[in-house]
Amino acid sequence: MAMKAIDPQYTADSKYALEVRNVDIYYSAFRAVKNCSFGMERNKITALIGPSGCGKSTVLRSLNRMNDLIAGARTEGEVLYRGQNLYDPDIDAVQVRRSIGMVFQKANPFPKSIYDNIAYGPRVNGWKGSKAEMDELVERALRGAVLWDEVKDDLKKSGLAISGGQQQRLCIARALAVEPEVILMDEPCSALDPISTLKIEELMFELRQRYSIVIVTHNMQQAARASDNTVFFLMDKEDRAGQIVEYGPTEQIFQSPKDERTEQYISGRFG
Amino acid sequence: MSAEPLTPLSASTGRLPQGEEVKQNVASRQQRGKLWQASLLFSVFVGLLVLLLLAWNIVNDAFGGIAVQEAVEVEALTGGRELEELAQPELVAILEENLRSRVLGNLNREQPLAERDAENLIEVILFEIIKPEVVATFSLYDYLFNRAEIEAQLAQDFPRAELEFKSWLRWDFIVNPMSSNPIFAGVRTALLGTLWLLVLTILISFPLGLGAAIYLEEYQSDKIFDERKPVGRFFNRVIERSTSIISTNIYNLSGVPSIIYGMLGLAIFVRALEAFTSGSFFGANEGTTANGRTIISAALTMSLLVLPVVIISSQEAIKAVPSTLRQASLGLGATKWQTIWKIVLPNALPGILTGTILAISRAIGETAPLIVVGASTFIVTDPTSIFSKFTVLPIQIYNWTSRPQDEFRAIAAAAIITLLILLLSLNATAILLRNYLRSRRVS
Mutation test of the interface with chain A: which of B332, B335, B347, B349, choosing the one with the most A Cβ atoms within 10 A? Predict the structure, then answer.
């Protein structure tokens, strides 16, 4: 089977790092998300918000084909990255996930040392460098996730032996080590205390300079203070499929929403 | 939403215990809990009791007293001295006095008596003149607590016999081959057979079982062939159907009685595949080979027997690896196989190994399928290859317990202890291995 490659030389003629066009996502016969179209701007933070069950996590997971892992899940429509539909039958999901990294809701470091956690990604992706270069890469990734100063003296320590907030930053560092272009974050702070949450948010602002970030969050304040654009999802009461109600710059969504339902949601009247 | 003042609901007033009544009510409920706790403790003690009884029953037979009667008393030969005190020429003199000339001639032909050392001469005297013979065997209990009775009976039946303590489990017993005389019989042949069987069964069932478990857990829902072509769709259906038959029936397979696996082994490995299992196809024509009734047939049969259990326990271990780790790995661009090899298996390995070793140690105690497959009940030659005739410890024990003599019952008990030590050390290996792997993995 001829594999198509995502063109690395592709120069952006779109302002979007990722673009979703008319996406419907099914779990077997059930349509979980319908008519989803929006773009995620380059070097910006895009927040996906909405009440539970509205499909925002499903959409996020469709962006690097993590939904493929769920039996019976199916995506229709296009997700465009570098001018290429990621759901083209000749595109390998493994290739997609290298460029579009993911950070999960619950920090999930491997039961390996901090060093090996970071080195894992490059190694499985065919790392050709020397040991010294790997040391350097690990340091760069940990610095990128603002974790280096805290763990530099015990890189041999287990990734599970550090605090929850540090574990989540380790997971971010791990994602950075394979040099992705987009980082997807699925409620990365939901299990963290406010101080750790703040650190992650500061980190997101740092990362924005080099990466495009898409984050799913339940926390309205977080979306308001830590994102550039916001997409608001809501479940259609009739067929229980999630759909986009409104999307635009965060400021506009939070201060002058065009849709009544958006206003109700962000002012806490339902959801 | 404003909270309403909490007033007692008229319907429940007086229906729930109040005041002093609460104390009594709680006390009586706690009482009931204590009663249950006590009865649960009782079940534990029943288990303990059974264990102690089992251990005592075996020890009682494997150790005990024997009455030894000598054809000629040492004192009569030596005039009241011990054999060890005598000088070499004196020992030669005793032999020359007491043996017939033909026997003497034979001994001299092997090695002239005058050239032999004292140790050797004492051995010859014991074997040829004194001829100690076990005339009665007593269990440990009788030996310890019914001493007077035993001695009275001995004095009556065998006045010259001497009562002494005997441990049937001893080094000679482990290294001696099978013999029709229980005094000299050992378990070497059976022990070697069991070890051969153990190693071969592990080598066959572990890779197969683990492989099947990985496929069923990780790949079952994957499509191997191109789903867009009709041929590919067809083959995908076939594979899907057959793997789902296996995964739904694997528990049933593990419950099939072992004798039925024995019948299967007899039909397939011993009979149908005789050319291969007897080794004749490979040019291995051993003198000891008996058709297809070889170690390899037994090991294949045992592997079939343990395979379902190995698969199930490996599946459980693989299932226990958190799916978040798989997702993390796949999310970094690892392929499915890299994820399995580098994340899933290292984390599942302790569980897989423990399950496999426990399953196999269970099988090593199996007798029924091996009787069917044709383990020998009496052989004295050690197994030397996978095409050798063999016997195993459980068969040897079964064989000895069915003999009428007390001595055989005693050595059967000693063989049971040998088997138990083997099994317990296998289980201990499983535990140590698991702990080692867990500690080596940084967690």
Answer: B332
Residue B44 burial (C-beta neighbours within 10 Å; 0-12, 13-18, 19+): exposed
- A146-172 pLDDT, tens digit per residue, is 899 999 998 999 999 999 889 999 999
Instruction: Please give the structure tokens belonging to residue A180.
Output: 């992705």
Helix (H, G, I), strand (E, B) or coil at A22: strand
Measured CA to CA, the distance from residue A44 to residue B310 in angstroms comes to: 51
Q: Distance from B246 to chain A by nearest Cα, in Å?
A: 19
Share of residues in chain A with pLDDT > 70 (%) = 94
Query: What residues of chain B lie within 8 A of the CB of A110, using their CB?
Result: 325, 328-329, 343
- Whole-angstrom CA distances from B355 to A84, B206, B209, B347 are 47, 10, 11, 14
**8 Å CB contact between A251 and A225:** no
Distance CA B46, CA B52 (A): 10
The answer to whether the Cβ–Cβ distance between A97 and B322 falls below 8 Å is: no
- Please state, in angstroms and rounded to a whole number, the distance separating the CA atoms of residues B384 and B381: 9
B366 touches B258 (CB < 8 A) = yes
For residue range A170-197, list pLDDT tens digits in order.
Answer: 999 999 999 999 999 999 888 888 888 8
Mean pLDDT, residues B225-230 taken together? 81
CATH 3.40.50.20 describes domain B188-440: no
Check B325 against A110: CB less than 8 A apart: yes
Contact criterion met (CB < 8 Å) for A101 and B221: no
Residue B408, CA distances (Å) to A122, B244, B415 in order = 66, 50, 10
Nearest to A104 among B327, B334, B342 (CB): B327
Dihedral (Cα; A144, A147, A151, A155), 10-degree rounding:
-40
Helix (H, G, I), strand (E, B) or coil at A211: coil
Non-local CB neighbours of B259 within 8 Å, separated by 6+ positions? B368, B369, B372
Predicted complex ipTM exceeds 0.85:
yes
Chain A residue numbers with beta carbons less than 8 Å from the beta carbon of B347 are 111
Give the percent of chain B with pLDDT over 70. 95
B342/A175 touch (CB, cutoff 8 Å), yes or no: no
Task: Mark which residues 323-352 of B lie under 8 Å from A by CB.
Answer: 324-335, 338, 342-343, 347
Radius of gyration, alpha carbons of chain A: 19
Q: Which regions of B140-265 does DSSP assign to beta strands (E)?
A: 162-167
Task: Answer yes or no: do A1 and B335 touch at CB < 8 A.
Answer: no
- Percent helix, strand, coil in chain A, to 5, is 35, 25, 40
The answer to whether the CB atoms of B442 and A113 lie below 8 A apart is yes
Q: What is the pLDDT of residue B284?
A: 64
Cβ contact, residue pair A113, B335, below 8 Å: no
Domains and CATH numbers, chain A: 16-266 (3.40.50.300)
Distance CA B332, CA A180 (A): 9
CA distance B429 to B354: 9
The domain ranges of chain B are 62-167, 188-440
d(CA A185, CA A188): 6
